[in-house]
Amino acid sequence: MVTAVTNLGRSGLYDWLVQRVSGVILLAWFSIIGTYIGMNGDMSHAQWQAFFGQTWMQVLSVAAVLSIGVHAWIGLWCVLTDYLTTRMIGANGNVIRGIASAVCGVTLFTYMIWGLQIVWVG
Amino acid sequence: MNDTRPVNLDLSTIKLPITAITSILTRISGVINFVSVGIMLYLLDMSLSSPQGFAEVKSLLDGPLVKLVVWGIVSVSIYHGLAGLKHLVGDFGYGETLEGGVLGSRIIIVLSVVLIALAGMWIW
Predict the structure, then answer these.
(1) In sequence order, which ranges of B50-97 are alpha helices (DSSP H)?
(2) Cβ of B58 under 8 Å from any chain A Cβ?
(3) B48 vs A20: CB contact, 8 Å cut-off?
(4) Do residue A49 and residue B38 have CB atoms under 8 angstroms apart?
(5) ipTM value of the model?
(6) In which band, very low, low, confident or very high, does the pLDDT at A10 lie, cut at 50, 70 and 90?
(7) Least CB-CB distance to A48: which of B1, B34, B54?
(8) pTM of this prediction?
(9) Is residue A23 within 8 Å of residue A33, measured between CB atoms?
(10) B88 partner at 20 to 30 Å CA-CA among A12, A57, B53, B57?
(11) Using the beta-carbon criterion (under 8 Å), do A118 and B41 form an inter-chain contact?
(12) Alpha-carbon span A74 to B55, nearest angstrom
């Protein structure tokens, strides 16, 4: 039996809810940015910077950056614990999954700090 | 747990229904999204940093290879977003039957193809 020590909230129900909330935030963020770029194909740097500098956009962007971290962690946890297991890849499965989880975790943490620097600190 | 029970994980003997194909595509697109966040943050960082960086991103996006990569990232994101919406619809209790699942899968495939084609036309 695999005990749940690497999933985000120690509870499937909690992870399920966090995955939905973060997914909706990310969908909103990408839809807004996609629509804005689509409608302002030849914008200037000042215009682009002003768009991201609005308070509501900063709030949404910070939420989106944090959402990337938790959403990707929950999703990658599902994938890693399905495929990188002792049953699927042999005796070293748990060790390999541990290493892969660590790589994902460090990458996501870096994404979050980097993303916050971009959208919040500016 | 009884470890001697028979397991059939030979995927080549299993014909995947459309719902399984859209499900595995959601996973694959999610993993690709995870990797592509690095590229997107790099471009966003450069484009917001200074007018020079903004111009640099613009000239980068003129390159056919970068266009292809960006189109790929956008396509994968479109698919993953639509698959996520299908999950939300399911969470509200719609389309949970076998027929509903098949119909939902067909809808997200068709919508993805349309939106990905539109994104491609916009990028080029």
Answers:
(1) 51-60, 64-91
(2) no
(3) no
(4) no
(5) 0.91
(6) confident
(7) B54
(8) 0.90
(9) no
(10) A57
(11) yes
(12) 36
